[in-house]
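Deliverable D5.2: sample structural annotation.
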Amino acid sequence: MDRLEEIILPRLEARREKKSYWWDGSWYTGQDMLDIISNCEKVLRDAGFSKGQRLVVMLKNSPLIPALSLAVWKLGGNFCPLNEKAGSSTLDDTLNLIKPFAVISEHEIPGLSETWPHITCSLSDRTLPPFTGKTQPPEPEDYAVIFSTSGTSGNPKAVPLTHKNLISNCQATKETVYPLNEHDTFLTVLPNFHSFGYTCATMLPLSIGAKLAIVPSFLPPQQTVRAIVEAPTTIMYIVPAMLSFLLMSVEKGKLAPEFLARQRVICTGGDRLAPNVHDQALRLLGRDVMEGYGLTETSPVVCMNHDCETQHTGTSGPILPGYEYKLRTRDGKDSTADNEGILWIKGPSITPGYLHAPEITAERFDSEGFFNTGDYVKLDSEGYVSILDRVTDIIIVGGFNVYPQEVEKVLCQHPAVEGAVVVGVHHDINGEIPKAYIRLKENASATTRDIIQYAKEKLAHFKVPRSVEFVEDFPVSATGKILRRILRERDKKF
């Protein structure tokens, strides 16, 4: 089967009279989901939607997300989830690039209707209101989803993923992780406009006939806790910031530890899992959590630990089956034999290229079709991958490479430190020097001198932060990923 609807619809048919998804405290059947799909398909067809058209959806998680995806695919179109809170400038640029047939959101968005057909609906609606779309030049019918991503540059790009991309990634993930099956209930709380949430928490469970516990968003966290407890969930794909918050709820007695401890799989991705959060999970839950790694362009999973028994703590696991890989130095020399370098990969899960951006595609793909992840990695003797850092985040101090994650790991071991982010700042002599942004634990105290002295005792001199700034919180993306770029830009303003 080459298309997602060919795989998912029969799974829903098999659940016609069985539980299929949990929403707002109640369970619904496969027939309920099939009805929503049919309703949405009819409205879209009547609106003039046809093959190769793009439907932009700016909604929080709800049953409408999988239903609209399947309705769009049945009509041969492309599903385009966007973050409504991305900012008007970013949204305008992205919409002009994607050129949607129509835009769906929960609320009116000022100025949007002047350019694009724009309709609103409630998250609990079982269909769309009638409307008339605007036919655009078609994109390839095999594009299943088109994601918007800014990467580290801040400039929006559109990443099309084909049906085969997503099918291969779901299949490889299912084969890699501790056996997933139709009896599982996945927590669907990661935002759908992020490929991690869309693939691993929505399409993966649907493709294997498992159930969804759908939560609109992680905040307020009471909705997520309710789903974990009442559904109850058995599989959780979440970002580290969400796990940290849930563990804090356990620590403060707001969530009984057994509700997290009973999950068959807790896997984090989207950002590194800090060692102190990993240790906290072991202490509070008496069980381990897993870690994975991926990118929007790879549908998204590249690496994932198989299970808690075989995982190598601190790594993202081995590379999924189906990928070929190479390691290269910053100047392009092959370093695969050294088991360290920039990760280049090739395989069926990788995007065919950036939408209407051949120059960016040419920059990221080599002549053999290998894709530059932009991440500097190290493989251990068993092939488990450690992400040392984004190449753009590596700090070069007087010719020496400093990996921020290594320094952050050390700083987080300080008894007063809750979190640390290290970035490079300009220095007239050394080119760059490390600067640490520190978030202290509740009721803890430390000085700049304390932090620097602690680092000096554990790190080579060129890795030690030369300055420290204490912050209440770190700037994060909508998925909880720390935005180092914002911290670097903040420093330039002073």
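Annotation notes: The chain has two domains: 1-392, 394-492. The radius of gyration is 23 Å.
The annotation will be released with the project's public dataset once the embargo ends.
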